[in-house]
Automatic annotation (TrEMBL):
One of its GO terms (cellular component) is plasma membrane. It is a multi-pass membrane protein. It comes from the Bacteria. This is Putative branched-chain amino acid transport protein AzlC. It is found in: Cell membrane. One of its GO terms (biological process) is L-valine transmembrane transport. InterPro entries: Brnchd-chn_aa_trnsp_permease. The chain crosses the membrane at residues 26-47, 59-90, 139-162, 174-192. Belongs to the AzlC family. It holds the Pfam family AzlC. It comes from Colwellia psychrerythraea (strain 34H / ATCC BAA-681) (Vibrio psychroerythus). Keywords: Cell membrane, Membrane, Transmembrane, Transmembrane helix, Transport. The lineage of its organism: Bacteria, Pseudomonadati, Pseudomonadota, Gammaproteobacteria, Alteromonadales.
Length: 242
């Protein structure tokens, strides 16, 4: 796991204010992901992982949706190739996230870049982008603080799921997976502030539903690019009209 000294070294009073703000901002999303983490931990036990293996999966991989997909395929005795391809497609959105942060961290130390990459999640990306939009600058302290906070919540939730999965049968049938949808709704809705973003969200959502019927494994990434393209076209058209 990346060292936390990336934050601690050379911290100033203003840095601690940024850390506090990051924790406050990520807290609601961290709470929302708790049922998701519990589901992940219990499912890991259900498919045959030991408690240690289940916890290490969250500690070392830290990839929410990809973890659930991998565990589901393990339970269905899926092949390693299909497991790797599915998790790669699900995680490919992080290529887009990292592209946004690249210009801000490319001159930073390797340790800092690796730390931000490890803690990069949908939730961390969302709150960090909101911080950037408000303050007109990128803060590595903010990004890491929000990412580490979310990491702690995810692993505590996973541990809870591991313990519960050993004592409560069929925990995965309690509808905890709705937390996944709820989390992404909470991330997306606040970002819809103009017409192009709304069209991007609608087009990507509709595309994901339709494409999942025909190309289930690649529907997510294809819908992402369709949404981006539609949003870009709408924004360009509005600029031309102005």
């Amino acid at each position: 796991m990346p060292s936390r000294t990336a934050i601690a070294e050379g911290s100033t009073p203003s840095d601690f204010k940024i850390m506090y703000q990051a924790i406050v901002d990520i807290f609601p999303l961290s709470l929302a992901v708790v049922p998701w983490g519990i589901l992940c931990g219990s499912l890991a036990i259900t498919v045959g992982l030991t408690p240690l293996q289940a916890q290490l999966m969250s500690l070392l991989i830290f990839a929410g949706a990809a973890q659930l997909a991998a565990l589901t395929m393990m339970g269905a005795v899926g092949s390693l190739s299909s497991m790797f391809s599915s998790t790669f497609v699900i995680s490919s959105r992080h290529l887009l996230y990292s592209a946004v942060f690249r210009e801000h961290v490319r001159k930073s130390s390797l340790g800092l870049r690796c730390s931000i990459a490890f803690f990069l999640t949908d939730e961390m990306f969302a709150v960090t982008c909101a911080y950037m939009a408000k303050h007109k600058k990128f803060s590595a302290v903010y990004a890491l603080s929000s990412g580490i906070t979310f990491y702690v919540f995810w692993n505590v939730a996973t541990f809870t799921g591991i313990v519960a999965g050993q004592h409560i049968p069929n925990l995965e049938h309690l509808g905890l997976e709705f937390a996944i949808a709820a989390t992404f709704i909470a991330i997306v809705i606040p970002t819809i502030k103009n017409r192009s973003t709304l069209i991007s969200v609608i087009s990507s959502g509709v595309s994901a539903i339709v494409l999942s019927i025909f190309m289930k494994e690649y529907a997510l990434i294809a819908a992402t690019f369709i949404g981006m393209f539609c949003g870009y076209l709408t924004k360009e058209k509005s600029v031309i009209n102005e």
